[in-house]
């Protein structure tokens, strides 16, 4: 009974993590489209980007803290909760998917830390050498973009594996799984030169997928669920 209740609680925690993760994306998009609209257009040259950063360092820091670091933290319990839910019916896909989910979380967390440290360094350097600050910003932005989704791979692969595993196991609604397949394929198209703009389909679809997964996991925790391998092995 204690194990079952623990499993149910973990499923609900995963559902909450998914809903919070969706909220971070929504807030991030809202901030990007309003407070950071001048930067969001992508029309600024390096000098303009650095000038914007100098004037809006606090906003950029908060935006990054929410959208990258906050989202990546939510991914970890969600990935483990989905693994717990799917591994009985489709163990190989569930385990592989969890690996990609954790890789994605690590990449986003790394990008967030690079940016937040980089923001301060660029602003400080701008006071003494504007040209060097622009060069530093180009380097920081390129590294962070590569880690966080300039080419979407880890995130779409995770969602694709989860969706296929859930279809096989019957552990999530079929329509939700088909949505997951569609948005993951859209995300993978970002690896094709010239098709990076299709990432908007992945981004917007991700919100719907996270909300739907969160609601299902929170409301429909299995009556009997196993404790995650990581917890069980340490017990």
Give your account of this protein's structure.
With 235 residues, this protein is an all-alpha fold. It has one domain (2-222). Helices cover 80% and strands 0% of the residues. The protein has 10 helices and no strands. It has helices at 2-33, 37-40, 46-55, 57-86, 91-126, 130-148, 154-169, 174-188, 199-219, 229-234. Helix 4 packs antiparallel against helix 5 (91-126). It is elongated.
Task: Provide a concise account of the structure shown.
With 235 residues, the protein is mostly helical. 80% of the residues lie in helices and 0% in strands.
- Helices, by number, come to 10
Please state the oligomeric state of the protein chains shown: single chain
Distance between the termini: 16 Å
Order of helices and strands: HHHHHHHHHH
Main sheet: strands, sense, barrel: none
Domain count: the total is 1
Summing up helix and strand content along with how strands pair, one would put the structural category as mainly alpha
Number of DSSP strands? 0
Strand content: under 5%
Mean pLDDT: 87
Low-confidence stretches: 1-5, 223-235
Which word captures the global form?
A: elongated
- Integer-rounded radius of gyration: 19 Å
What are its keywords?
10 helices, mainly alpha, 235 residues
Layout of helices and strands:
Blueprint: H1 2-33, H2 37-40, H3 46-55, H4 57-86, H5 91-126, H6 130-148, H7 154-169, H8 174-188, H9 199-219, H10 229-234
Helix pairs in contact: 1-4, 1-9, 3-6, 4-5, 5-6, 5-7, 7-8, 8-9
